[in-house]
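Section: protein folds

Sequence with per-residue tokens
===
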Amino acid sequence: MSENDHQPVQHRYDFVYLFDVTDGNPNGDPDAGNLPRLDPETGQGLVTDVCLKRKIRNYVGLVHGEQPPFEIYVKEKAVLNRQHERAYLACELKPQQKKLPKKEEDARRVTAWMCHNFFDVRTFGAVMTTEVNCGQVRGPIQFGIARSIDPIVTSEHAVTRCAVTNERDLEKERTIGRKFAVPYGLYRVHGYVNPHLAEQTGFSDTDLDLLKQALREMFESDRSAARGNMRPCKCVAFRHESKLGNARADELFRRVDVRLKKKLRDSGRPPRDLDDYEIRTDDSELPQGIQIEYWV
């Protein structure tokens, strides 16, 4: 590994990530009985940025075994104040209730330790202003909310259970439950890599390679009855030569066109597979300083 691999990312990236689900629930809404999230006006399915970041965190934690500098800050049953106390201990400082160290240099050291130790802090940022205050940072990697290309339909399935919870229900033959699934949905989300924020958190090319790996593999370690058939389909990244960018992100995103094949549109049949779509990337007459990379 070269020394440059540990340097902060030097280029801005804007990327389009496509993934699909078959007979599954990619992101249930707890406020709606775990129904798949959707836009009520268009019927398009939605997957939150928080859901995607969770899968990336879980994957990185598995790959590196929760070892520094790839520990995960936001995870199940994590006590955040304890993590902050580790930063003060490592910097040989004593925390004050809800306050950063008085010396600006010490405050930067505490925040920098958190960025160095935790992959998700230097990647996605974090608000660490709890009782043990480690400051806050904006992350260089950001996602929008994923939206399905076409409207989705939620299938509701009744399921039965032969076991019962309480002895008083022993005479019941079956208990009934409900589960929800999307027959098929192709989702699109836009992501961003900001090199200016990477300099602040220390997000490096090595971290970026790990992020690309997660986008390719994160569904493999996230299988469940609801998410058994999810997969990455394509990721088109636009690399800018300039840190400020050589073109607007929205203009670049329009170069990635995803639509139903004409034969399917004419038939009126709903999509049920990735092969029902055409995915085209316009790589002609790219703005100066822009290169296209395919991460998936």
Observations:
- The chain has a mean pLDDT of 94.
